[in-house]
């Protein structure tokens, strides 16, 4: 099976900020799609977040985008600007896809 190189952009953001990130992605004609997953918890430099709270105000989601390197770099810069004053993690990694026309 032949595979093709793409970039995987992972954006971990508070649920209340997800709509702004998704709007940014939807406005880019070269972003062909995204997936959003719930984040059940984690621990980082600001402490631990667990899904045990009385409210979901601090819940986070993970937004995944697979795209070309050029698009990933442009989107990553825009997301970092959008989240400059907010909680968020942005990761970029190499992936191999089997159906390149989808990405």
Radius of gyration, Cα only, in angstroms?
15 Å
Regarding quaternary structure, what we see is single chain
pLDDT averaged over residues = 89
How many distinct beta strands? 6
Q: Strand pairing plus helix content: what structural class?
A: alpha+beta
Helix content: 25-40%
Main beta sheet = 4 strands, antiparallel
Helical stretch tally: 2
Could you please describe the fold and organization of this structure?
The chain is an alpha+beta fold. Helices cover 26% and strands 39% of the residues. The chain is built from two helices and six strands. The chain has a four-stranded antiparallel beta sheet. Strands 3-4 form a two-stranded antiparallel sheet. A hairpin with a 2-residue loop joins strand 3 and strand 4. It is globular.
Question: Which descriptors would you attach to this protein?
Answer:
4-stranded antiparallel beta sheet, alpha+beta, 39% strand, 2 helices, 103 residues, 26% helix, two-stranded antiparallel sheet
What is this structure, in a nutshell?
The protein is built from two helices and six strands. The chain has 103 residues and is α+β, with helices and mostly antiparallel strands.
């Amino acid at each position: 099976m032949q595979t093709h190189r793409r970039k995987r952009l992972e954006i971990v953001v508070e649920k209340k900020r997800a709509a702004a990130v998704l709007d940014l992605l939807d406005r880019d004609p070269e972003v062909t799609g995204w997936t959003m997953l719930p984040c059940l918890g984690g621990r980082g430099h600001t402490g631990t977040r667990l899904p045990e709270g009385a409210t979901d105000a601090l819940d986070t989601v993970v937004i995944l985008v697979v795209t070309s390197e050029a698009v990933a770099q442009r989107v990553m810069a825009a997301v970092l600007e959008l989240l400059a004053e907010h909680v968020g993690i942005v990761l970029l990694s190499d992936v191999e896809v089997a159906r390149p026309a989808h990405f």
